[in-house]
Amino acid sequence: MEQQEQKQSSMAMRIAIAAVLTAMTAVFTLMVRVPIAPTRGYINLGDVAIYFSAFTFGPVTALIASGLGTSIADLIAGYPQWAPITFCINAVRGLVTGLIIHGLSRSSKLRVSEQNWAGFFSKKKAAAAGTAGMVIMVGLYFLAGGIMYGFPAAAFEIPGNIIQNVVGILLGSLLSLSVYRAYPPVQQLRW
Amino acid sequence: MIASWYHPGNTVIHKADPRIKILLLVEVVILFFWPTAVFWYGLTAAVIMFLIILTAGLRSLWAAVKAILPLLVLVALLTPLFNRGGPALFTIGNISVGVKAAEETLMLILRFTGLTLIFYLFFLTTDLQHVILTLRWYGVPYTGALVITLAFRYIPTIAGLLGRVRDAHKLRNPAEYAAGSAKRRGLTKIRKFLPMLTSVVIASIKSIPVLAMSLEHRGIGSSVKRSSYISLPPLLHVPVQLAAGTVTAVLLSIPIWI
Amino acid sequence: MYLYRSMENVLQFEEISFSYPSYGRDPIQLFQSLCLNLKQGSIHVVLGEPGSGKSTLAQIAAGLVPKYTGGTLKGRVCIFGEELDADQAYTLIDTVSLVMQDPEQQILTTSCEEEIAFPLESSGMEQKEMKRRVGDALEFFGLSEFRRNNPSMLSGGEKKKLMLAAAYALDAPVLILDESLEEVDASFRAAYLRMLQKKAVSILYFASKRDDILFAKADFFSLLQDKLIVPVERDAEVLNQCINIPRLEGESHDFLNIQDLEFSYPEGFELRIKKLDITKHEITALVGPNGSGKSTLCKLLCGLLAPQAGSIRIRNGNNWEAAASNSLTSRAGYMFQNPDYQIFLPTVDDELSYGLRQMGLSKDEINERITEAKKRFVLPEGTIAPTVMSYGERKQLQAAVYYLLEKDLYIFDEIDSGLSFPVIERILSAFTRKSASVLLITHHMGFAQAAADRILTMKEGRIISDKRIVRDNV
User: Cys-Cys link to B60, which of B56, C75, C266, C432 (CB 3.0-4.6 A)?
Assistant: First the structure.
C-alpha cells in the first residue's frame, strides 16, 4: 500500500459531513437567539451556519445541512408547524448560494490568498450569493407567512429577516475564511 | 435541550399507525387552505384542540397556543386595517371593523392556529423513531434517515462544545467577553463572536473523519442489503387502523366537497 | 493460556511504516518497518506510552487509516492470510471488531439497543436474530435497564461497556481493543476476558498502563516504542512509571479564600465548601470520582459560575477583597482536557501573541516573550497550523498560551490523561518560576502523590480531606 489521500467520495464520509454540518446548523440556530418580532420568534445565528456551509463546502452539502438543520431546530424549539417550510426554503437557499459560489466544480484543491479572497471565492461572488440567498429567504418566508396568516402580519418579519441575513452573510464568510486559514484540511471535505 | 415534543401516552392517537397519521395531517393542512366557510375551520380547530387535551392535557395545549399568541394578536390588529369597506360589524372609537374584515381575520387566525395545532398533535403523539420509520416507508432513502438520526446524536455534543468553547475563550480574553458588553451594536459586536465560532466549527469539523471511521467500521458503504432492527408492520396487518383512518379521512374531507 | 493452540496468524502487520500528512513541515514518522503477529485464539497486549501511536496502529488494522486521515502507509496488513483492502474496510465487519479508546468517537445512535443493533443491521442479519443478540448483549454487560436510554446519559464505564457489547453482538473472531477496559469494573473485566477466551476470540489489546487482571490472562506482550514493536516479558518494567515534577519556587502564602460556598445545579447536584484556602507557589491536586464536584469547584474558582451563597475573596496586599466573577476570570486559567477549545488562529505565533496584544506590550516585548515560551514548551517552528499538530503539541501550546497570560491560578484538567510523562513534566516544569498556584484535577491518586504538595479529596460536592504531603517520587 502506498500513499493514500483522504477519500472524500466514500459514502461514510459524505454522510458524516452532512450529519455534522446539519447538527452544527441546528445548534447555531437554537443556541444564539434574540427575540425580535412576535411572528417567527427570533433572529439567530443559523444563517451564519448556512452561509458558512455554502461558502466552505458545496451546494449539495449546503442544501442538506441548511434544510435539515433549520427544520430540526424548529422541531426542537417547538415550532413544528414551520418545519416543512423551513426545510424547503433553506434547502433552496443553501443550494443556490452554494452554486453561485462554487459553480458545478468538484475541485477540492482551492487556495486562499492572504490579501483577498480570490481563488477561494471572490468578494463579488460572495455578495451575489448572499443577495440571492437573502432574496430567496425573505421572499419565500413572506409568501409562506402571507398565505398562512395574511400578508400584513408577514410583512412585519421582513426587517428582522433582512438583518439576520446580512449578519449571516458577513459572519458566515468571515467564518469560512477564518476556519480555512486555521484548519487547511477542511478543503478536502468538499463533495 | 433535546426536548422533543413527544408526550408519552397510551391513547388511541398514540397507538395509531404513523403512516396513516401523516396522511391525515396532510389532509388537514389542505383543508385549512381550501376556500370554504370559516365554520369548518373553526370546527376542525376545535376538534384538534379537544384531541390535544385528551392526549396530552390542557397544559400542552396552552403551551402550543402561547407560542403563537403574539402572532395571532398581530394578525387581529393588522388584518382589519387592510380590509376596509363593507358593512360595519362594530366600532371602537373612530375605527369601524367591517364584517368582511372580521371574517377574514377570523379565518386567518383559525387557519394558522389549526395548522399549528395539527402539527403539535402529530408530534405530541409520535416519537422521533417512528417519524423516521414513516419517512422511510414513504420513500426517504436510508442514508437520509441516517443523516437525521446522526444529527440528533450530535446536536447535544456540539451544544456542549459551544458552552465549553465560550468558557475557554472567556478565560483567555476576559475583557472581550465581560458581561455588559453585550449591548454593543454593529459589526464590532458580530466580529467578537468570530474567534469563538471558529473554534467551535473547527472542533466540530474535526469530528467528521472520526464519525466517518465509525460509520464505515460499522458497515456503512457495504452493498449488503441492510436489515431493520425495528420496523413498522405491513399495513394489511392493521386493518382496524386502516378502516378508522379511512373513515376519518372521509369525515375530514366533507368541507371540501360541500 | 489459550485453549486453541495454533500457529496461525489471524492478523499480521508486515513492515508497516506510516506518517501522518505533514502540512508544511517534515513528516514525522510514526512507525518504521513495524511487524506484529496476532496468533489465533490468543490475547496479545501491546504496551505503549501516550502518543506512541497505539490508536493509529489499531485503526490501520481495521483499514480506517489512512483512508480517513490521510498520510503515507507502506507495508501491508493481512487478516487470515489475505491482504487488507482498505478501499472496502466495511467488508471487515464480520471479521475484525475495533473498539476505540473514546466511546464518544464511536457512538452513532440515540438509544443503547439501536447502538448494539447498528452493525448487525449493516450485516443484513434477520430481525429475530438481531433482537436476540441485542437482548443477550445488554444482559451480559449489565445494561438491560438502559435499553431505551440515550448512550450520552451513561457513565464513562458504562459507555465503554456499551461499545464492547456492540462488538460482542457481532461476534467477530478478531477483536482489537484500544484501552477499552479502563474504567470498567474489575470483576466484570475478569468475566469478560474469560468469556472471550472460551470463544477462542483473538484479541489485540493496546494498553498504556499496567492492568493486573488483563496481564494475568494475556499470552503475549509487546512494547510499542521508537516506531517499532518489540516483544517483552509479562512482568517487564517497561512503561516509565516515574514522574518528576519540580516544586514551585517561592514562599507559599494564601491568596484566595473560600468561605461557606454554596452552589447547586437544577438537576440536584449540590456543592458545599465550608472553608478553603488556595496558596501561591504550591501545587494542589484535586482528586475524586466522577461527579464529585471537581470541575464545578474549579469553574467557581474561575468565575465561570457564580456561587449562590458564600464568598470568594482574593488577597490584595494585606486586605482581603471580595472577588467578582470578572476578576476571577481574568486571574484564573483553566486548561480543559481538550486543547482545541480555544485554538482558532493560523499559526503558533498568532496564538501566542493574541493575548499579549491585549496587554498593551510593545512589539519587541511580545516577540521576546513568544520566543521564550516557544523554547520552554518546545513548540514547533514554522507556519504549521496549530489545529493539525499532534495532541501533545497542542497541549503544550495550550499551556504556553496561558503561561503568557500571567494568571494567578492555573488549573489543569486531567493533564495525566493522554500525555506521556516527559510531556507532562515539560509542561508543569515551565510554571516553576511563576508567582502562581497550580491546581491539578486528576482521577489517579498515584499521580497526585507524585506531583502535588497538597491533596484535596472531594466526594459528592464536599471536600472530605485536605492534606499537605511529602511527595513520593516513585
Answer: B56
